[in-house]
Amino acid sequence: MSQPRLRTVVVLAAGEGKRMKSALPKVLHPLLGRTLLGHVLAAAAPLAPDRTLVVVGHGAAQVTAHLAEIAPDAIPVHQAEQLGTGHAVRTALESGPEVGGTVVVLNGDVPLLRAETVAALLTAHEAAGAAATVLAAKVADPTGLGRIVRGPDGRLEQIVEERDATPDQRAIQEINAGIYAFDATLLRNALSKLSTDNDQGEEYLTDVFGLLVAAGETVGVHVAPDATETLGCNDRVELAALRRLLRDRVNTEWMRSGVTLLDPESTWIDVTVTLDRDAVVDQNTQLRGVTTVGAGATVGPDTTLIDTTVGAGATVLRTHAVGATIGPEASVGPYAYLRPEATLREKAKVGTFVEVKKSEIGEGAKVPHLSYVGDATIGARANIGAATIFVNYDGVAKHHTTVGEAAFIGCDTSLVAPVEVGAGAYVAAGSVVTTNVPPGALGVTRAPQRNVEGWVLRRRAGTRSAAAAERAAQEAASASEGEGIHEASDAGGTDRPAGDTATE
Ligand code: UD1
Ligand code: CA
Question: What is the pTM of this model?
Answer without folding.
Answer: 0.91
